[in-house]
């Protein structure tokens, strides 16, 4: 067996970076999270979606050991939390519910204070680590301004810098684009992509569905404290959407040919959609070519994440 095969096998059997099993959290008479089972695959970028009040932040806080589940268990990098959280947390960067810093210190000074508490960062490395983190999030020019004068987006960037002071195995970002302008949102997308390319696992809670669709490999959808769907993003978008999309300039001929054999087809955009239940895709393409139809592209129809999210949350009780 080659080394590359060993690596692929290890990746397939790698334990999840984070997991909750049967977790439930009750605040007084309010059930914030109700019996959720969820795994965050190692090496994935998982987008956690849900309306306000769906339990996203509460679930993240339980994963990080910031609040104890009423029932059920949580694991972070293979360690039970909150009981053994101290063994996992040095390898975890997190931005949850907005950053909190000293208002009268500069961004750089605040970040140095955070860096001084990092168990994986030697004192001699603090200056360089702080400068690199500030540059990475686009705050180098504002680093010596007082935190109280920062805009909401700048405060969010500083919180992100704190999460990235040292290389992490897992990065958890709760609404990281809150308050950011389009340039800041692009920076977050770039950083998430860099983390993913470097082998880190990223958990992102967001209400920006387009950003999740652009950056995430997996999604989990919450509604009223329950998990209504989870899995690979591509698989979820494919499931239940139905149909083969054929791009062609010969729409009328294509429709006539397919309807002639009893297939259900209709015009859409710059081509046609052939509904499921008829001939398989290779036969559809072969039929169209024989009929003289110029087939520019043929692909399975995919829903947009916005459509999937709306359907899942509307269907949930």
UniProtKB/TrEMBL annotation:
GO terms for molecular function: ATP binding; ATP hydrolysis activity. Residues 18-249 form the ABC transporter domain. Keywords: ATP-binding, Nucleotide-binding, Transport. PROSITE patterns: ABC_TRANSPORTER_1, ABC_TRANSPORTER_2. Pfam families: ABC_tran (PF00005). Belongs to the ABC transporter superfamily. This is Multidrug ABC transporter ATP-binding protein. It comes from Pseudonocardia sulfidoxydans NBRC 16205.
